[in-house]
Amino acid sequence: MKTKVLLLSAYRSDSHASWADWLQQYLDVDWRVLELPGRYFRWRIRGNPLSWLEALPELLNGWQPDRILATSMVDISTIRGLFPQLAGVPLDYYFHENQFAYPLGAGQHSSLDPQMVQLYGALAADRLWFNSEFNQTSFLDGVGQLLKKLPDHKPTNLRARLQQKCGWLPVPLTAIGSGGDKMPGLIVWNHRWEYDKCPEVFLAVLQSLQQRQLDFKLALLGPRAKQIPPALQQIECQFAEHIVVNGRVSRADYVYWLQRAEVVISTAKHEFQGLSMLEACSAGAIPVVPDDLCYREQYPPEHRFPVADAERAADIVQAAFTGQLSSVDVQAWLAESTAARWHTLFVV
Question: Which domain holds residue 60?
Answer without folding.
Answer: 4-169
